[in-house]
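Curious: can you check?
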Amino acid sequence: MGPMSIDGPAGRSPGTVPDPAPEDPYCQHPDTAPPPSSRSRPVGRLDEGRCSVRALAAGDSPVATAPPARRWLLVEQPGPWGRDALLQSRFDAVVAPLLAQRAREAGLRIQMVRRPGERLADAGGRWAVADVREAWVRWSTRTVDAELLDVPLDGSVGVQSDAPTFLVCTHGGHDACCAVRGRPLARSLVGDVWETSHLGGDRFAANVLVLPTGHLYGQVPEDGGGLVDAHRRGEVLLEGLRGRAGLTPPAQAAQQFARAETGLLGVADLPVTGVASRGSAEDGTEHWAVTLAGPAGEVEVLLDSRLSAEPRLLTCAALRPGRFRTWHPVSVRS
C-alpha cells in the first residue's frame, strides 16, 4: 500500500423514507429526568451486556476511532429520532432523502442536533456547515426544511462561531448507551452544547464532538472531565480523546502519541504532513509511518495497528461479533 490520503470519505446514502419514528424512550425532559451527579466515569445505569459497559470493563482503547469526515452539516431538529435520525424524525419526509443525497454529493456528513430539553416549539430552524480541517463552523437559519436543498453548503453563508461547540451523542434510537450516558452529560455541560445523532463508536459512550476542530472524545464523565475548560484554553484533553475527525486512523493515532510524548496540547499543534504504509505482517499487523509538523521541525511517528485477539459484539444492536484495531507506538522522533 502506498502513501495514504489524510482525508476520508464523508456523507450518507439516500434512501426511501421509512415509517415515522416512534417516541424515543430515552428522550426525557429535564423536569422528569433524574438530576445529574458528579461522576469520574460515564454516568447511567446499564446492564453488563451493554456495549459501553463491556468496553469499559475490557479497557478498550478509543485511540484513532474518530470518523474520517472533514466537512459536516448540522441540522437542528428537536423531537424523537429513529435509527436514521434524518429520515426518521419530524424533519420534512419529502426533503429528507433529497438532502441526504445532496450532502453525499457535496462530501458532507449530516448530524441532526437539538438543544438539551428542547421542544419542537423552541426550535429556531438553525443549521450549520463545519470544516474541521480549516477549523470553522458557520450558522444560518431556515424557515422551511426545503430551503436546505438550495442554500450554499460550502460555508460561504452564515455567521461564524469562534467559541467551542460541543455535540453530545444522545441518539437512543441508534443505541441505548448513547442516550443513557449522553443525556445527563449534555444537561451538565456549560457552553454551546447540543445533543446530536450517531457519531459512531457507541461502545465509547458518552461521546462528544468538539467543533470547529473536530476532536472527538469518548467515555466522558458527567462533569465533562475538564473537556470544556481545556477547549476554552485552546487545548485538547488526552484522557478520553478518540482522535480528530477528518484524519485517517494512522494519522489520528500518530498525532495522539506525539502529543503524549512532547506535551504539545494546542488544538492546532502537530499538523499531519504525511501518512505512509510500511507493509503488514501475516497476523494482520499493519506498520505505518506518519510525519507531523513540530515547532522545531518534522516529527516522525512509527506505529503498529493490530487486530483484536477475539471478536466481540461492538454495539448493543450488533448481530455478529467483530474485531477491531488497536494502535501502538513504536517510536516518536524529531
Observations:
- The two ends are 25 Å apart (CA to CA).
- The longest strand covers residues 297-307.
- The chain has two domains: 51-231, 247-333.
- The chain has a mean pLDDT of 87.
